[in-house]
């Protein structure tokens, strides 16, 4: 089989790239070792984070770092045995998170986020997936006035600098919005602009069906089998040999299975995360996607039940599951909302692909004219899928991307 482009990786990024290329008339084969959207894209909190113009940085406060070192929190956990291997990534992550550098990175990152909802909206309409979307923002609930007031001030800055809309909630207004939430909270903050997704995997599958309706093909195969030919690339799949002029690496935390063999080195880390679904107790309902701001876990009312998600686990990518954060979160979450029984047989785990400067890698490979990259989106893979697909497709076709892609170039790591 011959195609114009092979896209390696069928998470939300790879599917979005494939859709955007197919929408522009290219013949595309999308490849993954598993079904579409079954890895990292399966288990996120279901937010298209229009407010997320400031990427998640490494804490700079020494007192907070000391508390993290105790390794007993929900929002972050680490494997001591993995520290020697991931220390170079963490050191650079800390370096880029220092205030002046982080502010500069945010200015380069914000244009991607600014297109997140609008680009999703186009694909949602074309994929007829509107029934999966809730256009009601999401909430942060605060246990202390200090944290509440700090976040209120941050929201004001985002409103001033980026036009991000928000609503400040008193204790009474939060209770009115969430009548079954406990009275542990002194107020809340609602981010008005984001959209929520009732089933992230179903949204990825809707985009896949759109891709296939445009003539695209999904196949199963091992991306490590990719090899170069005199005219492009080839790969053996379950459907036979595929050849194409160009290839896109969109393998998330597994991108190194291709990039390393081709001579590229990316200082990548993973933030592993867990989720579990719960039934609400009879007669209760969670109305909003909601984070317990001081504890660092998230509750999302999805089709499968209330999804409880954890913060970041710093560990080797392929280490066995260790869902201690989930169990910590469940104990706390049951004190603030009447969760019922678990609906999943075991905790789900995914690995967010992270660069130390918090920006994805999007663009052409420095030493291969027909090799393209789209990975490293950390917490915002779902948010940034369609806009990443659009600007990469535009660059591949020689058009001017809607967002300048120079800040996301692979040369940051491979000069």
How would you explain this protein's 3D organization?
Residues 4-394 form the FAD dependent oxidoreductase domain. InterPro entries: FAD-dep_OxRdtase, FAD/NAD-bd_sf. Pfam families: DAO. With 415 residues, the protein is an alpha/beta fold. It has a domain at 1-52 and 97-130 and 198-268 and 355-415: FAD/NAD(P)-binding domain (3-Layer(bba) Sandwich). Helices cover 32% and strands 26% of the residues. The protein has eleven helices and 22 strands. It has helices spanning 12-23, 62-69, 83-96, 99-114, 116-127, 145-162, 171-177, 200-213, 256-259, 324-336, 381-396, and strands at 2-8, 28-32, 47-48, 76-78, 133-134, 138-142, 166-170, 187-191, 195-197, 217-220, 227-229, 232-237, 240-249, 269-280, 290-292, 297-302, 305-309, 312-314, 339-342, 348-354, 361-364, 371-375. Strands 6, 7, 8, 14, 15, 16, 17, 19 and 20 form a nine-stranded mixed beta sheet that branches. Strands 1, 2, 10, 11, 12, 13, 21 and 22 form an eight-stranded mixed beta sheet that branches. A three-stranded antiparallel beta sheet has the order 3-9-5. Strand 1 (2-8), helix 1 and strand 2 (28-32) form a beta-alpha-beta unit. The chain is globular. The mean pLDDT is 97.
